[in-house]
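Reviewer comment 2.1 asked that we show a complete input and output for one of the modelled complexes. We chose the guanosine-5'-monophosphate case, as it is the one discussed in the main text.
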Amino acid sequence: MADAPRPSFNRHTDPFVELISAEAVAHRIAELGAQITADYERLGPDAGAEVVVVGVLKGSVIFMADLVRHIALPVTLDFIGAASYGDATKSSGVVQITQDLTRPIEGKHLLLVEDIVDTGHTVHYLLENLATRRPASIKLAALLHKPERQEREVTIDYLGFTIPNKFVVGYGLDVAQQWRNLPFIGHVADS
Ligand code: 5GP
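Response of the prediction step:
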């Protein structure tokens, strides 16, 4: 079979500087998936049926879609929506759930999947909220972490990349809701 055509975003991406290539993202996600598979397999032969992977809308959807295809267990998928209030540069720390899970998670092993931990307010709030629903365990997978910006202590069990304090875009992350479809992770040229 001939190679599939690769999209060329060059005409559109002048404002963006590539930070992490699509190949590097794919490689790291394969590693994370193998690690997650091994960790949950250690819970016992039936544990896979109990794993619920929950993506935080909308930024995590592309990461989640790729990650779950490297988790060799019978997982189920669900989504949660969260909004964090504040302006573009400063989070107020007030987080609201805008869309909830479709199923109860009591007794399940929950893997929360987030695109980026920036101040940490969003995942901190979600982890606390989800813990009240009595899952068997909760772990966090985040593709990116900006430690310079962190205000809330959060344990990231599965981390893709630590990045500098730049506003990043692509691979699920947006600028004004656009460019989530870029296959690589870039940053805005002057950020
Ligand atoms: P936190 O609550 O950790 O400050 O922020 C989490 C959310 O802010 C992320 O899920 C993401 O939607 C957004 N965010 C934080 N940093 C960036 C960034 O560099 N680029 C983009 N596109 N979104 C970001």
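The two ends are 42 Å apart (CA to CA). We note this here for comparison with the apo prediction described in Section 3.2.
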